[in-house]
Amino acid sequence: MSTKVKIVKVYSSFMDGMTAQDAKIEVSITPGLPTFDVIGLCDSSIRESRGRIQPALIASGFEMPKGHITVSVSPSYIKKSGTCLDLPIAIGMLIASGQLNVNMDKRVYACGEITLDGTVKGTPFAALRLRLATASYDYVLIPEEETDAARCASLSAMTIRSLSELKAALTEGGYREEMFTLDGVESTEEEQLDFSAVKGQEKAIRALLIAASGVHNILLLGSPGCGKTMAGRILSGILPPLKGSEIGDVYSVMESAGGSDEADGKPVLSDKRPFRYIYPGMSRGRILGIPSKLIPGEFALANHGVLFADEIFEYKREVLEALRVPLEDHVVRMSKDGRNFAFPASFVFVAAGNPCKCGMLYEPGRRCTCTPSTISNYMAKLSGPIRDRLDLIAEMRSISGENMEGSFTKEDQRLNERMKELVIRAWDMQRKRFNDGIFNGTCCNADADLFRASSEVVKYAARISEASGFSARGFNRILRVGRTIADIDGREDMSVSDVAEAGIYRKGDIQNERPVYKAS
Question: Which of 69, 128, 315, 431 is surrounded by the fewest CB atoms within 10 Å?
Fold first, then answer.
């Protein structure tokens, strides 16, 4: 005589690289020897859930179900890992064994790791995973530790701290959901230097404004101590604050990489755009990530912010060449177990370096001691393909004694505010032109109609590209930079002067300097 097997379904989510996937957990308990099988291409972290769940149930006042327990996690064709499925597996076991009385027509979403004493803990990438916990679920149960992640996902859910709270939470009338939103996220604007403190570097400041306005890659060349690093750090101060899903993106990557300035290592929910700093000697894995563990590197951590690469000419050749694709496509690609994963890496890339071995090439008075061949060999460390991906090049010189005094004197620092207003205006124009999150410097497809570039402007760009020896990529990029310059001025149509200025920054010509910003 056959016995009808009761199958309980509980829903959750897991990470597939940087993409969240829905998961359906099916639990059945049949008579027989006490066994516990987990199927569905799950790794050891999920299969070991029995070792955590059994003592946790007993510590929380429940019983470990008797018989053969089968847990199926689908979709079964995707490899799954992580401990976030502990809670939904435990809920499925309790419902299947009759210890929790839940209407089978109700859809339950749950996630969280369970400790041996029954405590429910948060897990990495929660902000991305919880975006899948939509209104189609009747119950949404998350760990109390994932409150910030729920805010990033704008989620309605009930938080729980331990398994002992499940009986009340899943009883009719006991479910108390709360709406989590980003309203009230405190602005984290910090007091920092103003661009007005960077004296005598008008061309570099102008170039940095353009880079920030269009999310372009920029190279700052100058002698030691002229202010390259300081200017790069100040750049993040003129970018608009993070908004909406960007906050969740940054929070999730920081959470997964354990990257936080806080003592407890937990990332802070903030609207501050990330500023990441890399330097010679950093490993390729630290910069681009570790494929074997799918751990994001500095490129992914800088998403939606600024990545500053100091002393760019001193990096190892293999590290520099590895930057080609991420700087072009704005993603970091990793391969693991025969599958490809992509981590978003859209940021303002600021590289800084000396123009020669001694660093004094741009200084007056023949202070440079390098021979022409030494200079050529030093600059050749940055290969043509890498340099071709740099939209702007700006030179910086040591400042005079008067400017040194001015940089140390407290002034009315309002230049950052004015520059931020211009960046916001440029970003608003690009949002109308592209989908949100795409900029002139990161768009895949651009044409004359989209950029509002007349045939005269395109022909002029082609002429200066041919005369200057620019590649097809260089021709495309001076048009993108020219479009950004027009956006800064709030103009719908590009002009020849926009392309002319873009060509100057493309060549790295120290002449023809222009003011930091133009009148509206």
Answer: 431
